[in-house]
Design goal:
Blueprint: H1 12-26, H2 34-43, E1 58-62, E2 71-73, E3 83-85, E4 87-93, E5 98-106, E6 124-134, E7 138-143
Antiparallel strand pairs: 1-7, 2-3, 4-5, 5-6
Helix pairs in contact: 1-2
């Protein structure tokens, strides 16, 4: 059974991320669940058309331990400035359930987050730092309200 409306790969997290990626790039979707609500908000289906929303931040949970996944990255301009984040912007999902995710973080946030609930998600911004993940390693996704992160 598919979790998203458009895809049925057998991987619920992959299907939702594919739907978010399509919505963010094509701005087409017809949604009603929590992740789909964020997609609808992004597309302006439930908010004013000029809402300036461009990102559905997601939190992924690792299979087995059900803990939030924390990704790590290093910006090109400062190779000594590694950072981590629990928040991601999906960039792409391929047929093999691999996804490119961009790490999101609060502007000028140098702290290593211990928990995703300690950050203010409305202040999240894109970082330009992307990681590739195997979506078969995740069992849960939380979609946060759509934001303007670009």
């Amino acid at each position: 059974m598919a979790c998203g409306k458009k895809f049925d790969s057998g991987n619920c997290v992959a299907d939702i991320l594919r739907e978010i990626a399509d919505a963010q790039s094509d701005l087409l979707s017809d949604c009603t669940t929590s992740c789909e609500q964020s997609i609808a908000d992004l597309l302006g289906d439930t908010a004013p058309a000029a809402n300036n929303l461009d990102t559905v931040p997601v939190i992924l949970y690792c299979e087995g331990n059900c803990k939030p996944f924390k990704g790590y990255g290093v910006p090109v301009e400062d190779l000594g400035a590694a950072f981590s984040s629990f928040y991601f912007r999906v960039k792409q999902v391929d047929e093999d359930n691999c996804a490119v995710l961009e790490l999101l973080r609060e502007d000028n946030d140098d702290a290593d987050p211990c928990s995703p609930v300690k950050q203010n998600t409305s202040d999240l911004e894109v970082t330009g730092v992307c990681i590739t993940v195997d979506l078969d390693c995740f069992c849960h996704i939380t979609c946060l309200p759509a934001i303007s992160a670009l």
